[in-house]
Design goal:
Elements lengths: L8 H13 L13 H11 L11 E5 L3 H18 L5 H9 L10 E8 L16 H19 L3 E5 L4 H7 L6 E10 L9 H4 L14
Antiparallel strand pairs: 1-2, 2-4, 3-4
Helix pairs in contact: 2-5
Length: 211
């Protein structure tokens, strides 16, 4: 059996700082991220929890200019469509937000979830198949924290149509689009969410209620 690892308050403090300074980055420097750093970030995803140890996340590193341009165009289409639910000051504020780092981020990752993996033999997901998507989300969050520890920023582009991304990347039918991620060195670091600082939505504290 492995020797148990014991953590001290300094570890807890470091983790707290990573959590507080992990931000959804929209403004990137264009300098490349070294391959050694990306290797460590990829390895960090291996430590993420997953239902039945199925590890259903599938990651495509998007380097082809044509694919990047197509994602950019799809983002603009969806962003314009999404703006129709706002009007007045809210619409003006929406139009001022920088909602993607697609133009300058040096690393793009398209993340999918395998919805019927052989791995895990179905354990733990018979009544809640959505735990596969939840597992991929936890892998992304693990990557997010690991990136911050490397002083690399991560931004998630959510204004995209999943079916269009699945078509664009010609993935297997059992793959479900989960996230499009931008990675790179941030122009600035902040311990406050961009949407809070921009006045779009303030932070709301987590509530634990007894039942």
């Amino acid at each position: 059996m492995p020797v148990p690892m014991r953590f001290d308050p300094s570890h807890a403090d470091s983790l707290r700082q990573l959590l507080e300074w992990r931000r959804d980055i929209r403004h990137f420097r264009s300098e490349p991220v070294p391959e050694g750093v990306l290797d460590r970030l990829r390895d960090s995803m291996d430590t993420a929890p997953s239902v039945g140890n199925a590890r259903p996340w599938r990651v495509l590193r998007v380097e082809t200019k044509g694919l990047r341009d197509a994602v950019r165009a799809e983002f603009e289409r969806c962003r314009t469509a999404a703006s129709t639910i706002y009007d007045g000051p809210r619409l003006a504020k929406y139009n001022r937000l920088k909602l993607a780092g697609l133009d300058r981020a040096p690393v793009h990752l398209a993340v999918f979830t395998e919805t019927d993996p052989a791995e895990g033999a179905g354990l733990g997901r018979q009544t809640m198949p959505e735990t596969l998507m939840q597992s991929t989300a936890m892998a992304i969050h693990t990557l997010w924290l690991a990136a911050r520890a490397e002083n690399v920023g991560l931004g998630m582009v959510s204004i995209l149509e999943p079916l269009e991304l699945e078509r664009l990347f010609a993935v297997p039918e059992s793959w479900c689009f989960t996230a499009y991620l931008c990675l790179g060195y941030p122009e600035a670091h902040d311990d406050r969410p961009l949407l809070d600082r921009a006045g779009w939505q303030p932070n709301v504290p987590t509530r634990w209620e007894s039942v």
